[in-house]
Write a structure and sequence with these properties.
This protein is an all-beta fold and 84 residues long. The chain has no helices and eleven strands. The strands form four sheets. A five-stranded antiparallel sheet has the order 5-6-3-10-11, with no helix packed on it. The relative contact order is 0.35.
Length: 84
């Protein structure tokens, strides 16, 4: 997953919430940390090395999840704001 900062100032620290009809565990996550899980709703926060997203830059995190290969993240919310 790549997060792009389209702004002109760095983002320092981030959270991403999303729905995912799959099983995601902290042992299969790189570049982010699980804050909470409620059913299929996940809330992640930046790892120390992905916390700053430079202006016009990107950071990435990845995970392995159990579920159907066609499952997509939906209802994404980045730092409290809905995103596409």
């Amino acid at each position: 997953v790549t997060i792009r900062n389209q702004g002109t100032t760095p983002i320092n620290g981030w959270t991403l919430e999303f729905d995912l009809d799959a099983t995601l565990t902290s042992g299969n996550l790189w570049g982010a940390e699980i804050v909470s899980v409620s059913g299929t709703r996940y809330r992640l926060k930046s790892a120390s090395w992905t916390a700053t997203i430079p202006a016009a830059g990107t950071v990435s995190f990845s995970f392995n999840a159990g579920g159907l290969p066609t499952v997509q993240m939906s209802n994404k919310v980045f730092n409290g704001l809905p995103v596409a």
